[in-house]
Amino acid sequence: MAVLTKYILMYPLDEEHSLAINSLTSAMDIIDQETRSKIEDMQSGIKNIESNEDEELYQQLMSRGYLFENAQMEKDTINRYKLVHQELAKRKIITNFTICPTMGCNLRCTYCFESDDQHINYNLMTDTQLDTIFKYISETLENSKEERIRLKGDTPATINVFGGEPLLKTNYPVISRILKFAEANGILVKIITNATTIQPYLGLFERYVKLLHLQITVDGNKEIHDVRRIRADGSGSFDQICRNINRVLDLGIKVALRINVDKSNIKSLRELEAVIKSNQWDQNPLFYPYASPVLDFCGVGEDILTEHELLDTLLSERLYGNEEGFIKGIVSPSIGFLSFFFDSKNQMKPWKLDYCEATSGSNFGFSPDGNITTCLTYAGKGKHTIGTFDENGVRLNEEDTAKWFDRSVFRLEKCQDCKYAFLCGGGCAVAAIERNQDMDDVVCSDIASTIEKYVFHIKRTILNQ
């Protein structure tokens, strides 16, 4: 007997229409209320799923993958997806590499996931360590050159420079070497900096404008920012950061302005918009402001916003998602995926089988303690590593690497019967580790509420397509 897939999501668009999403096949269909009622009756067992009862609907559901001739056919489809995923994982090409010159930092941000001890008692990356990293990157890119060009065209690889604060004065020789290596090998460099110590680097940066991007965080106007992103002596950082953003933009360097958002600053984002406009950053094509939720992997923070709360507020306040909104993007696992999924320009809708780049196998992070991590939350902490490096080379632990890079919805028991699995990716591995002491003991993402809010806010667009 035919079976209805469990991967059906339905959301109201207006009084007469709903959006049906098949998360197994990524099909999306606008249906009338009569059809929705019939599907719901099938789900509840009130209505038999037989072709002779409603031939037209039966054939439509079958052709769109909502209906299978029997339960085994659905299982076979999922198994085919699993095999495809495994094959793609074998051919995974690493094009993102993160280097942490130090874990030391001159700020003591209130929400930082790194400890004060890391920021105070720190080492610097040595020349020998850099030699090993550069050799590994060169060999990795050379060995994957043909496949990389085939899959990604001329998209360059990227070195992300992270910390701690990577632009402390003591790191100048390291940053100089990274930029020189990147230029020689056609690699982009993205530096994640608090921008308070940037001035000594301006002359160096001027020589590498074409390959350099900076990410700089400002969390609000001066009053808000200076109680969140404070120096070790307790003073604020707002004025100096704004001056340095202007200096960097004047050099012609791209700046991504990150706004870390939680309940304590979300209502004051209009004041930040005023700061952006007063500096005329919004008129500069090199400037890109985006929001990201403050993360709390232990789930106890009172000010933490869920993804759907963040999305709902930014859209409701018209801060994002329209021409007048000054926030141009949201970097967050569920929202970021849904933005791509619902983009009408993307005809091939993806599955999300793993949660983020930490579990997708697309990023390696090198820290001064000689450890390699895939999630930057653990950089420099000496735990949940996937390998080590020193003057003798890079050594990846096969078992530890597999724990991270093989983590997908196919491995996670809690995901097996979840209708959101292929839109979620299995939730954050770090949250699972920190709350449940097991990365496979899933902490569900906010995908269910987030997709509901997303559809609510774009329903007119969907109906007009």
UniProtKB/TrEMBL annotation:
Keyword Cell inner membrane: no
Residue ranges of every copy of the Radical SAM core domain listed in the record: 100-260
Cofactor requirement: [4Fe-4S] cluster
Keyword terms of this UniProt record: Iron, Iron-sulfur, Metal-binding, S-adenosyl-L-methionine
InterPro entries: 4Fe4S-binding_SPASM_dom, Aldolase_TIM, rSAM, rSAM_sf, Sulphatase_maturase_rSAM
UniProt key word Membrane: no
Gene Ontology molecular-function annotations: iron-sulfur cluster binding; metal ion binding; oxidoreductase activity
Gene3D superfamilies for the chain: Aldolase class I
Xref: CDD domains: Radical_SAM
Protein name: Radical SAM core domain-containing protein
Lineage start: Bacteria, Bacillati, Bacillota, Bacilli, Bacillales
